[in-house]
Amino acid sequence: MLVVETIAKIRRAHFIDGKPIKQICRELRVSRNTVRKVIRSGATEFSYDRTTQPRPKIDPWRSELDAMLAENARRPKRERLTLVRIYEELRNRGYGGGYDAVRRYAANWSKATQEASASAYVPLSFDPGEAYQFDWSHEIVLIDGVTTTVKVAHVRLCHSRMPYVRAYPRETQEMVFDAHDKAFAFFGGACARGIYDNMKTAVDTIFVGKDRAYNRRFQ
């Protein structure tokens, strides 16, 4: 893309200084077609928009690279390969292109995957009093000058998103029951159902799908 400053230099050199096109091309390091285009038109800005990005070397490897990127994305974060490792693996399979082409393709693949996931997201809606969510978090606090890790129970109403938070020394079942009792007293009542994240104090066994074996005491 030609910048405004270069266009102004071409016009000044031709119309004011009277320099020939050949000399302008040599001094400004631009092509003759570019100089002629600037001189013959009254435009002050030119841009070139490429409709398609040619990938002559990576195109035959797209399906294989897609599979490698998808498999890598499914791995735990600590086990994921870097793009350099993926590029080296692709080279071992016969790919003859450069690393930059793989990097650009991987960036576009990641962006397209994220957009597809975002478009498939369905926001949840709840009626008042229908449900609450319960979960734990670990927080580091300072108690009497001593750094201590505490377990924080979070109870949140799904409709209004109103939270109730209470800290405990452990995540035992007694603490779970106490957090529920205090939260229901705070909210002034209980919801029709609760939503939990398979915590051990509530779920003994996770089966296929949504089937669970709940802790008898909790249930």
Commentary on this structure:
41% of the residues lie in helices and 19% in strands. The chain is of the alpha+beta class and 219 residues long. The protein has three domains: 37 residues; 61 residues, no CATH class; 84 residues, no CATH class. The strands form two sheets. It has a four-stranded mixed β-sheet. Strands 5-6 form a two-stranded antiparallel sheet. A hairpin with a 5-residue loop joins β5 and β6. It is elongated, with a radius of gyration of 32 Å.
Taking the sheet with the most strands, its summary is: 4 strands, mixed
- Give the fraction of residues assigned to helices: 40-55%
**Individual helix count:** 7
Strand tally: 6
* Number of discrete domains: 3
Question: How are strands sequenced across the largest beta sheet?
Answer: 3-2-1-4
Itemize the secondary structure elements and their pairings.
Elements: H1 4-16, H2 21-28, H3 32-40, H4 62-74, H5 83-92, H6 99-119, E1 131-143, E2 146-157, E3 163-168, H7 173-187, E4 193-196, E5 203-206, E6 212-214
Parallel strand pairs: 1-4
Antiparallel strand pairs: 1-2, 2-3, 5-6
Short characterization:
The chain is an alpha+beta fold and 219 residues long.
What features would you highlight for this structure?
6 strands; four-stranded mixed beta sheet; 7 helices; 3 domains; 219 residues; two-stranded antiparallel sheet
